[in-house]
Amino acid sequence: MERFPEKLRLKLEKRKEESVLRGLPVSTSGIDFSSNDYLGFSRLHDLSEEVTKILKKYNAKKNGATGSRLLTGNHELYTVVENRLAQIHEAEAALIFNSGYDANVGVFSSIAQKGDVVLYDEYIHASIRDGIQLSYAESYKFKHNDLIDLEKKIKRTKSKVGFKGTLYVVTESIFSMDGDHPDLKKIVALCEENKSYLIIDEAHAVGVFGINGVGMIQEYGLHNAVFARIMTFGKGLGCHGAVVIGSQYLKQYLVNFARSFIYTTGLPPHSLAVILASYNKLSQSNLEQRILQTRIKLFKKQIEANKLTKIFVESNSAIHCCIIPGNERVTTVAQQLQDKGYTVKSIKSPTVPVTKERLRFCLHNYNSEKEIKEVLYLLATFVKS
Known about the structure:
Structural class: alpha/beta
Shape: globular
Radius of gyration: 22 Å
Mean pLDDT: 95
């Protein structure tokens, strides 16, 4: 027997031939325009000190959770942090998952039942797609941020003879590959009008939007109209884990039926302490958030100044994408920027559709005015050469 199946080897070879073979990157020390640490929390020394204080306060000395939360892993910090997050996000309950991927897979695989229909934005995150595929529900995509297309599909689903299921609508408040967002007020109104349950992934909005970084849904005062909000901590908060925000019934249901929650070891106390310390910092001061917003505005102005508007996706978030079609071309431009000391990553097909390959700029409050001006000046030089 061969040590590796031939058909799997051929799949790898095909990716090599198409220049789309993924590999783990070597850590670099360049100027960061690629990480999701928008507020710079992962590098804050005072936040680390706060974590130590929290661990001492709750006498959390274990290095691990020691088991599933349904067995031995539901240590005291879980209750403290979940109650705090429910309070901050103005909801009945909060349930922490080990990661955003675990949360999305757990929510969508367990909630959508046979006979139900899930309508999802075509640019939705891969973890949501995976969760939907694991469910017994039918699912259909609607055009990106196109509420006319969504309404048509809602009406079509509701008018099906014999349809008695539940209709779920899924989108993101900020999309990870474009940095844009839907008209949340209109999508909430559409779902309420058609008695559909709305689920929002707020991964890239937490820490960036809303008072003290509570997210875009609360910023618009729509939180009571949303069935579930999924927030991950690996972006704006620079740490790890995720939370599902909603009703007490939703929390109870997920504890009983979300397999990615039930069949895994819980987060260690240290991870929970970091989440709590990060939220405490957001609640105490919005300085980092204000600085980030000034960086975003400067970046947008420099896009215009360097005449790059036509190749950038419109965004008011910390994510800005420059479309450079072709895997080889976008890789070349990314490498040119990296050679100048700027860590900018290329996003290639099949991660994004063919012809939609891009450079993905992630902005942070620690990116200086000089760095922002120079990286876009260099980009303009490289794309025009």
